[in-house]
Design brief:
The protein has about 90 residues and is mainly beta. It contains one helix and six strands. Strand 1 and strand 2 form a beta hairpin. The protein starts with 6 loop residues before the first helix and ends in a 5-residue tail after the last strand. InterPro entries: Flavin_Rdtase-like_dom (IPR002563), NADH-dep_flavin_reductase (IPR050268), Split_barrel_FMN-bd (IPR012349). Belongs to the non-flavoprotein flavin reductase family.
């Protein structure tokens, strides 16, 4: 889960063409999972199943490992823009 400071990395990773990892600070686990450094949370997962849902698919994952950085605020994308998560 990307952190608030990863807005540019998010846009780069979402590209449909070219090198999606260009300029993104990442590392890979021994099993091949890719983790973006500085993220709010890392989940080492594999696909359990996929469920069709209209023009999308819902992907269910098996989580093999995780790491959280609770001090890193999460990146939130809502209403076609990045926003800060705020508690009321």
């Amino acid at each position: 889960m990307l952190a608030e400071s990863h807005d540019l990395a998010c846009r780069t990773l979402s590209l449909k063409e070219g090198d999606r990892f260009a300029g993104v600070d990442w590392e890979a686990s021994s099993g091949g999972a890719v983790f973006v450094r500085g993220s709010t949370a890392w989940l080492d997962c594999s696909v359990y199943s996929e469920v069709p849902a209209g023009d999308h698919a819902i992907v269910l994952l098996t989580i093999h490992g995780l790491r959280a950085e609770p001090e890193a605020p999460p990146l939130v994308f809502h209403g076609s823009r990045f926003r800060r998560l705020a508690a009321l």
